[in-house]
User: Fold this.
Amino acid sequence: MSSITTFDPLVDAPKHHHPVYDYDSGPPVERGKFAIWLFLATEVMFFAGLIGAYIVLRSATESWPNPEERLAVDITAFNTFVLIVSSWLMVKALFAAEAGDRSGILKWLGLTILGGTLFVSIQVYEYIVLFGEGNLPRTDLFWSTFYLMTGFHGTHVVVGLIWLICAWVAAARGKYTPKNYLGLELAGLYWHFVDLVWVLLFTIVYLF
Amino acid sequence: MSQDKHFNANKVFIGLIILTAVEVAYGVIGGRNYLDLPKGLLWGGLIFMAIWKALLIAWYFMHLKFEGWIVKGLILPTPFLIAVIFGYVLPDLADDESNLVYPIGSMVEAKSGAVYEHMSDLQKHVNPDAGH
Assistant:
């Protein structure tokens, strides 16, 4: 076989040094962070839909029960306090990651997980007591909306806890450095979002 | 991740705790059991404090304050979209009859569509011999 020799400037031209740019051609934000914020925006809409439905049902119902007479506001107020504390502990964990303090990350993140676990435990206890009193989701509209909104949020807390536990294991393996702790930051963003939603739900479900 | 994101987390945390305490006190004391404030005043105050807390969490704990225009651009449309959702909801709230849903605990009999305000009434209708 004979071969035809041609001059291909892309292949045969003398090699030049490629310029090295000190910027990334992508958007000026980490892809993971872009994704999580987009996801959180959709989550906001999901909860807004639930709250909107609740407002319509509640306002259109002739006599809505007084939440204080049906729910343990004091216990849930304490639970709100627990979730806010865990959110604050999460910030401490991020500060520790920024400082390269691995034991600090493990300590603060561990406490955050404990706080979240306590929150879920109290909510489960609340459900057990309410179920024992015969207050099931199908009992009436009050309980339907109550279990839907708090249950949906509780599921988010459980997912957040699983994520935080994964982040804790990653931290224990030394995955996070002062220059790269994005995984921890993303878990933290989700956790703060869970806290943010609860602040609104607590007001609407328990205090209105 | 190299930009400076430091803020006084303790101050924000204390602010959140104080706001929660004030909110619970306002909700309980101003509620039906004590002062029985007008709904607009009670709900307005509660929502104001709840949104204030939510903004503190988003702005500081979620670092929204330190993010660039892309992240802010992702989340900023949501309040507008929420307003759209609630805008669609408003006609229902403003309905003249103001009673779109039957009283709480009401049951609808599937075949006839008759509404019973108490489940026991429906059970009597379905099974008239029950209890005899």
Summary: The two ends of chain B are 75 Å apart (CA to CA). Chain B touches chain A through 57 residues (CB under 8 Å).
